[in-house]
Amino acid sequence: MTKQALIVYGGWKGHEPDLVAEVFRKTLIQSEFEVELSDKLDAFLDVEKLKALDLIIPVWTMGEITKEQFNAVSEAVESGVGLAGCHGGMCDAFRNHTGWQFMTGGNWVAHPGNDGTEYTVTIVKGSSPIVAGLEDFAVKSEQYYLHVDPAVEVLATTRFPVADGPHTANGPVDMPVVWTKRWGKGNVFYNSLGHHADIVEAPPVLTLMTRGFVWAAEGKTTNR
C-alpha cells in the first residue's frame, strides 16, 4: 500500500526550503510515497487529514506556529504518524514554541564557525538500521550545536570544538547530529545536516534522510 507524506515548506529563505522540499519529494516518490507539498502552515490545521498520513515533513526555519497548528501535528504524531526533517527546517522551525522542541527532540542554538566549517560526522555503529553500513564522513557546512532531549536515541555525532569561541573552554563535546525518538505512537527522526539543498543531496546525507523517512513512516504499523 502506498504511503502518504506531507511536506510543509517555507520560513527563512536562506535554507532554500523550496529546493530542499523538492529533493525530499523526489526521494519520497522513489521510495513509493505519494507526496503533497504545501507552502502554508495552515496545512497543519486539519487534524483528521494529518492523522490519515504516514509521514509529516517540516521544512520551515524560524517561523511562528499557532496553538491550533501545533496541537494538530502533535495529535497526529501521537496517533502514529511519523515526523521527520533536517537542519533548521525541523529543529529551528519554531524556536519560541517549547512544545515543538519537546516533540522533535531538540533545538538549534549556535553554529560556531558558520557555513564552511569542516568537520566529521561519526556514525554510532549498531545504533539503528538507519545507519547500518554507513561510515564516518566529512562535511563542509554549518556545524550545529543543539540543546537536545536526553530521551533521544543518538545515531551520529560530531565533535566540538572545531571553530574557536567561548564554548571551547568546556573542552571536547560530542554533539548529536542524527537522532530518533518517540512521541506517543509516532516515530520522530532528525538530522542536523542540510544547510542548503546541495548538502541534503550529498550521498551520505540523502541516504540518512531516505532511511529516516521510511523508518518514521513505519510508526503506524510497528507501534500499534
Features:
Rossmann fold, 30% helix, 8 helices, nine-stranded mixed beta sheet, alpha/beta, 224 residues, globular
Description:
The protein has 224 residues and is α/β, with parallel strands linked by helices. The chain has a single domain (3-222), classed as Rossmann fold (3-Layer(aba) Sandwich). It is built from eight helices and eleven strands. The protein has helices spanning 17-30, 47-51, 67-78, 87-91, 98-104, 197-201, 203-217, 219-222; strands spanning 3-11, 33-38, 55-61, 82-86, 106-110, 117-123, 137-141, 145-148, 153-160, 173-183, 186-191. Strands 2-1-3-4-11-10-9-6-7 form a nine-stranded mixed beta sheet, with helices on both faces. It is globular. The mean pLDDT is 97.
Quick rundown:
About 30% of the residues lie in helices and about 35% in strands.
Give the count of helical stretches. 8
CATH superfamily: Class I glutamine amidotransferase (GATase) domain
Estimated structural class? alpha/beta
| Largest sheet strand order | 2-1-3-4-11-10-9-6-7
Q: What's the structural domain tally? A: 1
CATH fold naming: Rossmann fold
Please report which band the strand proportion falls in: under 5%, 5-15%, 15-25%, 25-35%, 35-45% or over 45%: 25-35%
Using the 3D structure, state the CATH architecture.
3-Layer(aba) Sandwich
- Can you identify the CATH class? Alpha Beta
Cα(first) to Cα(last) distance is 17 Å
Model regions low in confidence, pLDDT < 50 over at least 5 residues: none
Shape: globular
Write down the secondary-structure element order: EHEHEHEHHEEEEEEEHHH
Instruction: Kindly state the percentage of residues in helix.
Output: 25-40%
Q: Tell me the total number of β-strands.
A: 11
- Mean pLDDT, to the nearest integer, reads 97
Largest sheet: 9 strands, mixed
Please compute the radius of gyration using only Cα atoms: 16 Å
